[in-house]
Amino acid sequence: MSVRCKLGDIMKQRRLSNKDVVALTGVSRNTITSLAANATKRIDYDTLEGLCRGLGVTPGDLIEYVPDDNTKTP
């Protein structure tokens, strides 16, 4: 099971740089870089709120659940 942040995908689709997203959201550059690269294990509610507000998206637009291929359903 994996939870994936789709910020990098959104940034590519909209042709936004890290600097653009920082300006739109107020989220730090290091956090944006980490989230866009899907290299983080957690996200704070304040960060999620800033991204949603600044980018005009919902949490469901930013976060995706990807089940493992070999996960058995109960």
UniProtKB/TrEMBL annotation:
Residues 10-62 form the HTH cro/C1-type domain. One of its GO terms (molecular function) is DNA binding. Coiled coil: none annotated. It holds the Pfam family HTH_26. It comes from the Bacteria. This is XRE family transcriptional regulator. It comes from Paenibacillus tyrfis.
